[in-house]
Amino acid sequence: MNFSKKDIQLFGAARCHKTKYYMDFFQEKDIPFTFFDVEENEDYAEVLRNLYKNKRLNFPTIMIKEKKLRNPNDNELLKWIEKKQ
Q: Are 73 and 49 in contact (CB under 8 A)?
């Protein structure tokens, strides 16, 4: 994969089982990503709020370059990863 850590961003919370699922998913597939804990850092929370018109903390949210994915299934996630390479 031709991604750097800045190309895939995971916005979520360390306590969230879905966020942990995506972290494991990326690590198992050796896909670099950056995790932003929106409960631990208000700046990260603000970035996430600004991704949505409703300004809510909709996590987990994955950004693959400019594509925003909200809680995608594995197939959808892999499709966008391949598409954005």
A: no
Nearest-angstrom CA–CA distance, 41 and 33: 18
The reply to whether CATH 3.40.30.10 applies to domain 8-83 is yes
- CA 75 to CA 65: how far, in whole Å? 18
Instruction: Order the strands of the 67-70 sheet from edge to edge.
Output: 34-37, 8-12, 61-64, 67-70
pLDDT tens-digit map of 14-73? 999 999 999 999 999 999 999 999 999 999 999 999 999 999 999 999 999 999 999 999
Classify 61 as helix, strand or coil. strand
